[in-house]
Design brief:
Blueprint lengths: L2 E3 L2 E3 L5 E3 L2 E3 L1 E4 L2 E5 L2 E4 L5 E4 L11 E4 L4 E6 L3 E10 L5 E10 L3 E8 L10 E9 L7 E6 L6 E10 L6 E10 L1
Antiparallel strand pairs: 1-2, 3-4, 5-6, 7-17, 8-11, 9-10, 10-17, 11-16, 12-15, 12-17, 13-14, 13-16
């Protein structure tokens, strides 16, 4: 949502100050006209991991980032990929990711809040959106998770696990936003 002041757009990554008080939201006539966001991607460097404590003997997993996308490739036959970004969740209500490309079959796809590295069994997860599917499905689209009850410093995590021996599961994420 764009907010303009004296014909200049105010960045959604900045606070708006009124009487020296910072605000994440701006209302006019009881209508929300501006809201601050935290851009987790693009613009920040993520931690990347593959095949951690998943109990599989898989191969081919990949987690990395380019300027345009976070790349997760779950590989084959019990392998996994994940990425993590440490941040303060206190001022935020919603975590949203946008997957612009990908394919999943016999996979676990999760994103959310964790206290550290996540594995197949969900260890360290605080709150998560997930799809555990044995059939083919498309991860493409925008997905949101309510994080209003989460406070303090934690990780944003994105996790992809492949149980398939025939097709690698993969996705490209082009934005991660806390609002």
């Amino acid at each position: 949502m764009a907010l303009f002041y004296n014909n200049t757009q105010v960045s959604t990554t900045q606070n708006v100050y009124l009487n020296s008080q910072a605000s994440n939201q701006v209302f006019f006539n009881n209508n929300l006209v501006g809201k601050r966001t935290f851009g987790g991607f693009p613009g920040r460097t993520w931690e990347h991991y593959t095949n951690l404590t998943d109990g599989g003997s898989g191969y081919g997993a990949e987690s990395r980032q380019t300027d345009a996308v976070l790349v997760l490739n779950g590989g084959y036959n019990g392998s996994s990929a994940q990425c993590l970004l440490y941040t303060d969740f206190t001022p935020w209500n919603t975590l949203t990711i946008n997957v612009n490309d990908g394919s999943c079959s016999y996979a676990q796809f999760r994103f959310g809040v964790s206290n550290g590295i996540v594995n197949l069994y969900g260890n360290n997860q605080v709150k998560a959106w997930e799809n555990n599917s044995i059939v083919s499905w498309s991860p493409i689209g925008s997905k949101s998770l309510d994080v209003s009850s989460v406070t303090g410093n934690k990780y944003i995590f994105i996790y992809l696990y492949s149980g398939s021996t025939v097709a690698a599961n993969w996705c490209h994420i082009n934005s991660v936003v806390l609002s």
